[in-house]
């Protein structure tokens, strides 16, 4: 099997996917919108003098793009920034209206959504492919790249496979390339109930420890059946960290103390 990140050219029927490492990004003008104003942004505006991570995908609002590709880059944005990345950009062959609405629906704050409406940038990258079988027309193959001052340093291109492969253009792979061994943020969820003092205490403990978390509220975001299904517990809060059930506020306090001792 081809290594998706070695120098190669893939023939997908009449389409050619090309690794452009060492080359300059295509020089085009992106048609963007800010509120009601059209704003032209050139490639130089975006890339000159900056370190930029770009990830490109087949389409706004599509499943893998919305559930995995975009959210993980947003979650790791602070790690990228700490390692010298000035901007994270999501490119798709969609117009500015679609890209703006998609960003709103994704509720992300750390990613620039860049419309490549005519596919000019994607074609210049050698990544424009035919997706007529899905009714999409011409779209981008899924890839990610690191660009320094307009020069492509590294590309992670998904391999030649049927469908929409997603395995090497992800945020974790890019971060590992830029900063090998960099720590990742914990994935934390609190099953909570409005007005519950123990739930409030658990959230305070997490905030005081500088740990971001998602809080799900009983009878709003989940039911007692869901709580029993995932934890076999009848009480709240129930805290989960990186897939493991920690338990209630007292259990969380013990876990945090142990984590501090281990880090000391």
Number of domains: 2
CATH homology superfamily of the largest domain: Glutaredoxin
Sheet with the most strands?
A: 5 strands, mixed
- Gross morphology is elongated
Cross-sheet strand order for the largest sheet: 7-6-5-10-11
CATH architecture name of the largest domain: 3-Layer(aba) Sandwich
Work out the number of β strands.
15
Share in helix: 25-40%
- The CA-CA distance between the termini, in Å, is 44 Å
Q: Gyration radius, to the nearest Å?
A: 21 Å
CATH topology of the largest domain, anyone?
Glutaredoxin
In sequence order, what are the helices and strands, one letter per element? EEEEHEHHEHEHEEEEHEHEHEEH
Structural class: alpha+beta
Number of helices: 9
**CATH C-level class of the largest domain:** Alpha Beta
Oligomer: single chain
Mean pLDDT: 92
Provide the β-strand percentage band: 25-35%
Low-confidence stretches: 1-14
Question: Can you characterise this structure?
Answer:
The structure is a single chain. With 264 residues, this protein is of the alpha+beta class. It folds into two domains: 9-178, Glutaredoxin (3-Layer(aba) Sandwich); 188-259, Glutaredoxin (3-Layer(aba) Sandwich), CATH 3.40.30. It is 31% helix and 28% strand. The strands form five sheets. It has a five-stranded mixed sheet with strand order 7-6-5-10-11. It has a four-stranded mixed sheet with strand order 13-12-14-15, with helices on one face. Helix 7 packs parallel to helix 9 (249-263). The longest helix is centred in the C-terminal third of the chain and has 15 residues, at 249-263. The termini are far apart. 28% of the residues are buried. The model is unreliable at 1-14 (pLDDT under 50).
